[in-house]
Every structure is written in structure tokens, then in C-alpha cells.
Design goal:
By secondary structure, this protein is mainly β. The chain has one domain: Porin (Beta Barrel), CATH 2.40.160.20. 8% of the residues lie in helices and 62% in strands. A hairpin with a 5-residue loop joins strand 7 and strand 8. The chain is rod-shaped and about 110 Å long.
Length: 239
């Protein structure tokens, strides 16, 4: 009797083993490996650059008044509000730094400007004219780059020194000469890279000149106030 029992146990164990061998096996899931985060490369705006631009002066406010030697306003023929096309060359240097996760670009810029921004008048027996002959300015530019780092939004503040040709004739006064005056300037602009070295820009600037008193040989006088707005568009080449 023991022999048949042993055979039965052997058969049962073999069956259980076979069932286990052919039963459900959980699949092996490979761990998900995330690719390392790659930060975008920082575009380089730092270094020396040279550029040129064309512009337009407008929005001046220079009323002409003729004062005799004894004082008192004798004649006000009108205003010589200069306007017209300009051209300019500039040289600058920029530094680039990170501040609170944003790229900041800053640096000085020296600008030489010429053109034919002018105005003239003739009224009630008097005439006057004013022309911006040339302008030299030194500005500090500071701006932020966009996320793609291909566009710079900036502001400027600086000083300018201009040479003007001025003439007033009539009501006893005869003046025709040039004079120089200084101004403080503020502006806003945008610049976009089209490749690693070349960028295009557009900007607006306001120039606040003082009041210059001009006198002729007979001590008649007038005051010139050549403040104005200026817009320009141009190109920079980075070295």
C-alpha cells in the first residue's frame, strides 16, 4: 500500500511543478531614464561693436524773440523748430551678466551725428534760421535679453554736445553765426541679432538742450532753444 501512495505523491508533485512552470510570470519593466536637462546656450552680446544709422529729428520747440539793448521783448517773428534727416556713426562696448535668471547687457556708446535737420522763417519784416550742424554724444545703454537671447530691449541716458548754425535778421538785429550747446539725453530702443555678429536696431531719443543767449554787435539778443526728439534705425557689427 505504501508503494501506490508514494507513486501518487510523486505524480502530484510533478504536476504542481509543471503548473508552476507554465503559470503567469510578471513582466520585467525597465526603469524610465530621463534625459538630463540641457539649458539653452547663452548667446554672446559682450564685446566691442561698431555701427551706423540713419535718423530723423522732429518735435523741436524754439521760438524766436528779439530783445533790444535796453531790454523788453520787441519782436517775436515765430519759431525755428528744426526737423530733417540725420546720419550717424557709433562705437561702443558691452558687458553681459546674469541677474535673477535674466541676461543683462550694458555698456557705453560714443555717437557722432550729422545731417540736415533745419528750419527757417520769415514773418513781419524779420527772418530766422536754425540748423543742427553736428552732434557728439556719450551714452550709457542698459537692457534685458528676451528668452531666446536674440533680442535686446534697452534704455539710454547720456550727454550730448551740439554745434548749430543760427541766424536772425530784422527788428534791429543782425546775427549770423554758429554756437555750441550741451544737452542731456534719454532714450529707448530694441535691437535684434540676425547672426552672431550682425544686429539691427531702432530707437527713440529726447535731447534737452539749454537756452543759449545770442547777441549781435549792436547788443540785440535772442535765445536759442534747440531741444528736439530723434528717431533712428541702423546696424551693429560685433567684434
Amino acid at each position: 500500500m505504501l508503494k501506490p501512495l508514494a507513486i501518487s505523491v510523486t505524480i502530484l508533485c510533478a504536476g504542481l511543478g509543471t503548473a508552476s512552470a507554465g503559470g503567469y510570470i510578471a513582466p520585467v519593466i525597465a526603469p524610465v531614464i530621463k534625459a538630463p536637462r540641457v539649458d539653452p546656450a547663452i548667446r554672446n552680446w559682450e564685446g566691442l561693436y561698431l555701427g551706423g544709422a540713419i535718423g530723423y529729428a522732429f518735435g523741436a520747440d524754439d521760438r524766436v524773440g528779439i530783445t533790444p539793448p535796453g531790454g523788453g521783448l520787441v519782436h517775436t517773428p515765430g519759431a525755428v523748430d528744426i526737423s530733417g534727416m540725420t546720419w550717424s556713426l557709433h562705437l561702443g562696448y558691452r558687458w553681459q551678466r546674469e541677474a535673477r535668471g535674466r541676461q543683462v547687457v550694458m555698456g557705453p556708446e560714443l555717437v557722432y551725428e550729422g545731417g540736415n535737420a533745419r528750419d527757417s522763417l520769415g514773418s513781419n519784416g524779420a527772418s530766422a534760421s536754425s540748423e543742427l550742424d553736428r552732434l557728439l554724444s556719450l551714452r550709457w545703454k542698459t537692457g534685458l535679453l528676451n528668452k531666446a537671447q536674440d533680442t535686446l530691449f534697452y534704455g539710454t541716458i547720456g550727454i550730448a554736445h551740439g554745434k548749430f548754425d543760427y541766424a536772425v535778421d530784422g527788428a534791429g538785429m543782425s546775427y549770423a553765426d554758429d554756437f555750441t550747446d550741451s544737452a542731456w539725453t534719454v532714450g529707448l530702443g530694441i535691437e535684434r541679432k540676425i547672426n552672431e555678429r550682425v544686429s539691427l536696431f531702432g530707437e527713440w531719443e529726447f535731447r534737452q538742450f539749454g537756452k543759449s543767449t545770442l547777441s549781435d554787435a549792436a547788443a540785440y539778443s535772442t535765445r536759442a532753444t534747440p531741444e528736439h526728439h530723434h528717431i533712428r534705425a541702423g546696424m551693429n557689427i560685433q567684434f
